[in-house]
Structures are given as C-alpha cells and as structure tokens.
Amino acid sequence: MKxxxxxxxxxxxxxxxxxxxxxxxxxxxxxEDVARNLVMVAKLLDDEPEQAYQYARVALRLASxxxxxxxxxxFASYAVGKYSEALAEFRAARRMTGNSDLWxxxxxxxxxxxxxxxxxxxxxxxxxxxxxRAGQVEMRMVAAGARRDMGQADAAVVTLxxxxxxxxxxxxxxxxxxxxxxxxxxxxxxxxxxxxxxAKALEADQGGTTDASDRLAELDGVEFVDALDPEQxxxxxxxxxxxxTVEESRADESKAEEVEIEDVxxxxxxxxxxxxDLVEDEVQDDDAEDLAEDAESAAEARSxxxxxxxxxxxxxx
Length: 317
Description:
Layout: H1 17-23, H2 28-44, H3 49-62, H4 67-79, H5 83-97, H6 103-112, H7 116-122, H8 133-149, H9 153-160, H10 163-166, H11 174-187, H12 191-204, H13 212-219, H14 230-263, H15 266-307
C-alpha cells in the first residue's frame, strides 16, 4: 500500500495519552510512526474520510495488535461506508480490551450491512447495560433506525421517547437525539410536532452537527439559492456585458450616421460649390495661357521663316 505523506509539523505527541501508553509496547521509532498516522486519521476523519481511511490502513499494517489502532481503523472504515470491514475491526478492538463502548456503532454496522434485525437484537443484549448514559442514548437511536429500516415507523417514534429526550439539559448527544425524534415524527406524518423538535434540535446544536436549520426551512417552504454559485455568477456577469456591448455598438453606428448626414447639410454643400467654381476658373485660365503661348510661338516661327528668305530686287524692267 502506498503511504500518504505526513506533514512535518505532525508529531506523535498530539495523540491521546491513553493511546500513547498503548503504543509504548512498540519500538520507539515505530511507535512514533504509528502515532503520526493516527493523528492524521483524527484530523481528516470528518472532512476527508477517504484519506483518513488510507492513513488508518497504514497504521493497521504497522501495528495490528494495538487495540487503539484497530478502533481507529474501524471508525475510518465506518466513515467511508465499509461496514463489514469496520465491524471486523470493532470486534477485534473489543476482544483486546473487553470494553463495550463500541457496542452501538457495531450494531449500526449491522444496519449498514442490511441486517436491521441483528441491530435490534443487539439493543436488547446485556452489553447495553454496561454502557454509560451517552452510549445508551446512541444505542436507542440505532434501535430506532433499525425499526424504520424494518418499516416500523411508529415503533421508531416510541423507541426514542425517553427521559433523555424529555430532559432540558444540553448534553453532547442532545441535538442528535432531538433531531432523530423529529425525523421519526415526520416519517409518520406528524409534521407540526416534527417542526417543534427540529427547532429544539437546532437550539441544542451548538456545534452544527445536524442540518436541523435546513429541515426547518424545508418545512416552512423556504427555498435557498446559492448566491455563490460560480456558474450562475458567470452567466450573470456575461449577460450585461454582452447587452451593453451591443447597445454601445448600435449607439456608435447611430453617431456615425449622424456625422455623415451632417457632412452633407445644405450649408456645407454651398461652401463646397464656390470651391468647384474656383477650380473651373483656374482650369480655364490655364487653357487660355496655353493657347496664347502657342499663338506666340507660331508667330515667332513665321517671322524666322520670313527672315531666311532672299530679298527680292526691285523690278528689272
């Protein structure tokens, strides 16, 4: 597998302390290498899951016997929709640690693989009782999703009804729980209640983990237009330019026609006529001078001819 580059400023010190302790079983250089790959997984998991997955596979190849690595690889696989692969990694991590924290996401992998009945069965296993409050809320949401997958929309609504949903305190999972409940209500046609719970989800969603605002706008009939759409901006920018260019061209043509018309107005025409008369007079004067010169030359020639003739004597008789 081709390894992706890791920025020089990324160090293994950024990894969680508990993970660093797990990596201490590895040689120092190897531990640092694995830790840096895990840091990249954490950095990219939300925004660039495909790249996070590649870094996770490198870490897994280097240290497959470290539970933290198996867990990271599981979440990276889960993020790109490789549910079978993710489930295998989660199971491996759970065997290594004996921890049940991954139980809800393991059940959701079953859903992703098209086996909602298995996910629902996991929701009733004893492992759920070992989960903390956050884990139990996650398990409840997975179970509700499985109900909907199986076509049991009303049962999904009931599954989500719990003390955590009714609580007014804001926890890290509150927004997602309220959002799931609102979505379940909408699925059974209870639109007014759904809108109320989407609003409650938005109120609790301080980190922007849901699209509750968009769902509210959709229910209110508000349509968003992307004002930053580059294609639309290009079209809008070109149209006025093209229209203004045509108008300017037409205006220039009109001005040119006006100039031509002005050039042949009567006043200008009268100003031109005298100039034509002057030219004609000059031509006539030149012709007269030429005729006069020709006549003078002819006269001189006749005089010379006469001068060359012998003089006649007087009458001899």
